[in-house]
Amino acid sequence: MRVAEGEIWLRRSDPERRAAATPRVLLAALLTGLLTAWLLYDGLGVNLLVCGVVVAVGAGLAARAAGRRIRPWTAVWSLAAVALLVVPAVWNAGWPAVLAAVGALGLASLALHGGRRWPGVLLALPGFLWQPVPAVGWVRGGLEGRSLPGRDRIVPVLKALAVAAVLLTVFGLLFASADAGMADLMGSLSPDLDLGRLPARAALFVLGTVTALGFAHIAAGPRRWDRTEIRPGRERRRLEWALPLVALNLMFGAFTVIQAVVVLGGADAVLSNTGMSRAAYARQGFWQLSVITVLTLAVVAVAKRWAPRTTGADRRLAKVLLGLLCVLALAVVAAALGRMWFYVDASGLTRLRLWVLVVEVWLGVVFLLLIASGLTGRTGWLPRVVVLSGVLTLAVYGLMGPDAIIANQNVTRYERALKTDPSTATIDLRNVRSLSADAVPALDRLPEPQRSCAMQLINEDLRGEAKPWYATDLAAARARQVLKERPLLVDSPAAVRQACDLTGSR
Predict the structure, then answer these.
(1) Cβ distance 333 to 367 under 8 Å?
(2) CA-CA distance, 200 to 197, in Å (whole number)?
(3) What span, in angstroms and rounded, lies between the C-alpha atoms of 46 and 62?
(4) Nearest CA to 209 among 144, 143, 132, 134?
(5) CA gap 40, 200 in Å, rounded
(6) How many Cα atoms sit within 13 Å of 316 on the Cβ side?
(7) Sign of dihedral through CA atoms 215, 217, 220, 225?
(8) Using CA of residue 236, residue 238, residue 243, residue 244, what is the dihedral sign?
(9) Predicted pLDDT of residue 288
(10) What is the C-alpha separation between 191 and 188, in angstroms, rounded?
């Protein structure tokens, strides 16, 4: 019975029709595979954007064969995906690049599926994951019994090239073994193949090809996840539903009042009354407040599902209590941001602290959107705008260069301390040493030996094997230029250890 219900649930989203695969779609997928194997092996950079454009071309060909047109929201999601793919081309840090790549895949899937309601939007984002396997069968079925255009001209050329390759290989090896000069000439003409790289490049080829086929499969006939039915929960009695929310609102209100008293009384008064340091006070509640923010969103979603809605009074009560909870949750968001800012000012910025700050700001935006939805009485725009706000947050986070911001904040904080009280000025070198090449312009402002200690790992990474232009980024090129103009004073591992020992950070 459960299996049958699951099949019915899935069949509701079946496409009306799906256009057949064409040779052009297959060629675009194979081109994507070749570019992926060639470009992505050496790392991420402009190559990710190039591969993404080729995938989009294949999906566009499939969409055109299906008679689909570009809609406004399709263009919005596509442009946002392109913005995310720009991140690896600009900055060197790996974590934002991975987030950008995953986000771009989800947005591309959403752009091709479409979606207005919560099920349509949320199920479309990961909808690509189960497309590659059916896509292979779709291509095979579409090309069976279909003659390829220009086959009479292409096939003889391919056969001739294959025979020529075999003859040149056999006779070339014989000539090379017979004469040293011929061997040198053949060695200079033949491509430098590293057999150890072939398995990885083959895997990248398969990955790129099935990815392109998966998106083309969606474009040819996407599932309509908006048809997914989510039945509203059984509405509760007014007292049964409202009493817990009233109690929760009172608790949130008490917390808001206390925070207002703290702000009016000043942070110094709080520290003197509690006997805590600035960092300890900031650490004390930030993570708990962040959890409270996320749980509040869950409470709002669950409460709305089981809210009483029979009469107008029931609907007004639900709107008031849930709206009040969202407004008070903004006070929690503000308190969490204030605690983290307090913490950063006392202890410096790290990757985790910056990421949590960004997420907390986005949660505040979500609550504002929920409040706006309640005030206007319209919810049709909410799912797509919430996802768009998350995408913009992710794009801004990646494009602003997190590692560069972290390094700049820590160095500026250290420079300020040097001017006010040099004897107590410190910088967390263990933190900045783990940053990427994005941090080099800021770390270059440090005095020695802190500068050499901070940039030693980055310098070793940049001095490795040079990457081709398509697998590098602007930040790495800028960092190499800085280190070329001002080399590290200590260049050997032993000297770097000594420099780090002098700073007390190793």
Answers:
(1) yes
(2) 6
(3) 25
(4) 132
(5) 10
(6) 3
(7) negative
(8) positive
(9) 79
(10) 8
Q: What's the DSSP call for residue 221?
A: S
Query: At residue 392, what is the residue type?
Result: L
Q: What is the largest CA-CA distance in the chain?
A: 98
- DSSP class per residue in 236-283: PPHHHHHHHHHHHHHHHHHHHHHHHHHHHH-HHHHHHHHT--HHHHHH
User: In whole angstroms, what is the distance from residue 248 CA to residue 225 CA?
Assistant: 35
List pLDDT tens digits, range 85-113: 999 999 999 999 999 999 999 999 999 99
Distance CA 369, CA 390 (A): 12
DSSP type of residue 492:
S
Integer Cα distance of 156 and 166 in angstroms:
16
Judged by DSSP in three states, 441 sits in helix
- What is the tens place of the pLDDT at every residue in 133-144? 999 999 888 877
Candidate from 11-15, 182-186, 246-250, 312-316 with smallest mean pLDDT? 182-186
Distance (Å, whole) CA 138 – CA 227: 23
> Is the separation of the CB atoms in 386 and 366 below 8 Å?
yes
Q: Report the run of H or E that residue 68 belongs to, with start and end.
A: none
